[in-house]
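Bench log. Compound arrived from synthesis this morning; before running ITC I wanted a structural hypothesis for how potassium ion sits in the protein. Inputs:
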Amino acid sequence: MRRRAQSTFVRPSLRHPARLVPLAFLGVAAVGTGLLSLPISREGSDAAEPITALFTAVSAVCVTGLVTVDTGTYWSGFGEVVIAALMQVGGFGIMTMASLLGLIVSGRMRLSDKLVTATETKMLGLGDVRKVVVRVALVAICVETVVAVILGLQFRFSYDYAPAKAAWYGIFHAVAAFNSGGFALYSDSLESFVTDPVVILPVTIASLVGGIGFPVVVELIRRTFKPSKWSIHTKITVLGTGVLLAAGFVFYLAIEWNNAKTLGPLDIQHKIQAAFFSAAMPRSAGFNAVPTGDLRPETWAVTDILMFIGGGSAGTAGGIKVATFFLLAFVIWAEVRGEPDVSVFGRRIPHSTQRQALTVALMGVAAVACGTIALLFASDAPFDQLLFEVTSAFGTAGLSTGLTGDLNNAGQIVIIVLMFAGRVGTVAVATALALRVRHRRFRFPEERPIVG
Amino acid sequence: MRRRAQSTFVRPSLRHPARLVPLAFLGVAAVGTGLLSLPISREGSDAAEPITALFTAVSAVCVTGLVTVDTGTYWSGFGEVVIAALMQVGGFGIMTMASLLGLIVSGRMRLSDKLVTATETKMLGLGDVRKVVVRVALVAICVETVVAVILGLQFRFSYDYAPAKAAWYGIFHAVAAFNSGGFALYSDSLESFVTDPVVILPVTIASLVGGIGFPVVVELIRRTFKPSKWSIHTKITVLGTGVLLAAGFVFYLAIEWNNAKTLGPLDIQHKIQAAFFSAAMPRSAGFNAVPTGDLRPETWAVTDILMFIGGGSAGTAGGIKVATFFLLAFVIWAEVRGEPDVSVFGRRIPHSTQRQALTVALMGVAAVACGTIALLFASDAPFDQLLFEVTSAFGTAGLSTGLTGDLNNAGQIVIIVLMFAGRVGTVAVATALALRVRHRRFRFPEERPIVG
Ligand SMILES: [K+]
Ligand SMILES: [K+]
């Protein structure tokens, strides 16, 4: 009897995750738009323009961070709280839902041995759902609290903020960092803290933890020093994240070393610090410590690629996801070597997973291509700025060369659609129909990384 | 004994097509560079710069058509003959080799029933090779002769060229058109003929025939009015070509309708004619009837996509190929519908073919991305111009916004590498390892389109 009740509760929503996730985000975005449209949300006596409220709400709940107005001066304290709440709900929501979907799709990434049976029948019990929700909340609260305390103390004692302001700025940026929210209360993001590791480092670490994905966090906590026992998904994600961070770091350092407007004026230690921060942010935290608009075009292009790839699956990061990108690299490598099977770390990747990765990546390319062409009609800005903004929106990175604030309404709507598609699209596409495929044969043991 | 001798003759080269095709093209490019470096090849008394001879030879043998100097005035009559010969050898070579590789990879695209056995053992007899070579030559000679005669007569009697010049201009542009060579003896390509259908139409048709691929041409000739009996490859390629031509036509017409520097000044009939021509050329003939540099940025972006896709497999066109692109679209469609198998026109596409398509497309994306970033280091031109030139080089389209002539040596070398990778890379990648996979099981009947 009890078992029956659980199934009835969970199944209807989890059977149609392709609809559930977008609907949930649409609902929250609508509520957010309503709240931000209230006069109380805006600094001064006027209410915000509807398009501004919509853009900001979608950007916050999709944890993107692109803005058409300056967050710190345009919105009131209440508006800032709404934005922080939207980032928190959006980040928590995507992490929880994507983790649950990942649990269903993948038999391997279980929370406990008891779950194996449940996942094999492609169902979760109510207890499992509760377990995921509670653990995601625990991770979020722990990381955000630690970072908020560090930032708040630093703001209070090194920068002499009033206690209330220091506390709020600490909380806001901790929430933004862990949830890859990208919003900052400073009009120049974190540029004024480029030389302050006490601000930069906690923000970077929070965004890495939030952005690497909940299943990886769980496995890293449980099996920190047993990497050989990690699931294939964790292995690919951790390795891929390392490769991308290192490559980005080297590129940023090499290209921007002498750029008088970015790394040029810094001493070596701060150059390294800023380059590492800049390499980590496109994963999709979206803060910047050097002015994005002044980066060289080569750096923009490299950043485009990093933003398109994004972070880990079932986390707060956007993009096609690290596992998707490297899985496709392994597929190509197998093809070039003439191997009939794609094997990674001793496991064969099923065709269906390869096809999911292909679909997510190519639909991502299509979204960026269509978005860029659409924006060409709406704006006269240079192509690389448009491409950067489109990639940032799709990857929910939130970095901006400064274009978004100048877009007309049509251009803003293109960006809104891209943020939404980038946030829920990849998750929905990757998991929606993995659940519908019934065709099964017994073959060699398989293991599926989460794609998207 | 005779059978043994045949095997010995054919097998060594066909077993390593990944090496054979690039080596053949490298060899011809080297000879071409040598010839074009002779003083006799250049107008006036000096010899060409080595980088110019190299760039032109690679562009000609890869049937791209990008140029750093004005073909008609920089090179002597002898130099023009060398360029025409390189285009002919390049076009003939890629068509023949890709057709033979296609025959081996695909059991369905046979020239005669006798061949089925041979292809199943992944070998061709000497007689079959000769048959393909002769038939490709026949198609080339027929189409080129007809077009050369039409163009020559038109140049002689409507434009009052001297007989020898009319004949040479007719031959040169017929060779360029059929082989998707992209070179023209006019510094403005075919812009002065934008209103002359007697020049525009034969060139368009020749480039469509050459660019749709030899296997499709053979099947269209043999089974013109029995489309239901066409191979899956022919069905996808013909349908896809129609879709891309129609979409390109509509885009060009819509975007450029009022552009004073392109379609604006033309009357409706000539607008339509020029838009159709412009939609067909990115497939990779590479002529232009309106100035490419004056097209709107939206049109550049659409053209980028068309050039990247290119034309039919085993023809003179470049790009990832129409069949590859639409095959991937079918894969995505199957994924979105939750179908375990990808079925097109009643046939299941094997996983290995899907993986080849994925590999060709993603390596193409990687080539364009890396090429663009490399060119950013070598040039200060706007991003969209660089992207256009890179895509044109990779797709061996040969259209240019005017940038190539201004590139420094490093930039020219990037373009040379891209032309080479685009010309032989996709063919080599797509077929090389399809021949090495040994793992086979009996399953449902399958059919493989040529990919790349
Ligand atoms: K973000
Ligand atoms: K061409």
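What the model suggests: The first strand of chain A starts at residue 343 and ends at 344. Chain A has 17 helices and two strands.
ITC booked for Thursday regardless.
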